[in-house]
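lol forgot to send this yesterday, sorry. struct tokens for the thing we talked abt
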């Protein structure tokens, strides 16, 4: 049986650090494949991207079992080599948003370049990872900045390999 690491709640630097600590522990124990069990409403996209890079560089194979994965959590799930979703699971793609303190906005209303770069990177990675075919799904995602997919829709689109009970 493959070891499982739970990613639940809001995706934060701390939650990802805890998950990474478990992954490192399993790697030291000689494991080569880790399952990420995800039930999360998303969170910090920049930290999720950093976490994905760590996993890719770890040499471990990682798969995802999705209960509920939104935004940053969805991106982590999509970065896995194999994905499965529970029967009533949801995958919510979100193109990201950036929380900016009012003190970070210049007097002329310009948002610092770093925020724009981070938002663009998250959006680009989400499109690349989701690999949605052109059509209604992409149109809805672009129009609303959010796309909620059921387990059946994820299977039909090829996002997951199977639906589990």
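and heres what i got for the seq, position by position
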């Amino acid at each position: 049986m493959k070891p499982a690491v739970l990613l639940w709640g809001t995706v934060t630097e701390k939650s990802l650090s805890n998950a990474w600590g478990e992954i490192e522990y399993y790697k030291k124990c000689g494991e080569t494949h880790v399952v990420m069990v995800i039930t999360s409403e998303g969170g910090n996209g920049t930290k999720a991207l950093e976490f994905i890079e760590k996993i890719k560089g770890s040499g471990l194979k990682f798969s995802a079992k999705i209960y509920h994965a939104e935004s940053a959590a969805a991106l982590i799930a999509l970065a896995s080599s194999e994905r499965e979703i529970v029967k009533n699971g949801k995958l919510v793609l979100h193109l990201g948003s950036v929380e900016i303190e009012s003190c970070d906005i210049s007097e002329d209303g310009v948002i610092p370049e770093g925020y724009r770069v981070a938002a663009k990177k998250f959006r680009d990675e989400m499109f690349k990872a989701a690999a949605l075919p052109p059509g209604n799904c992409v149109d809805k995602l672009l129009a609303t900045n959010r796309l909620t997919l059921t387990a059946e829709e994820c299977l039909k689109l090829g996002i997951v390999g199977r639906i589990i009970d």
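The two ends are 18 Å apart (CA to CA). anyway ping me if u want another try
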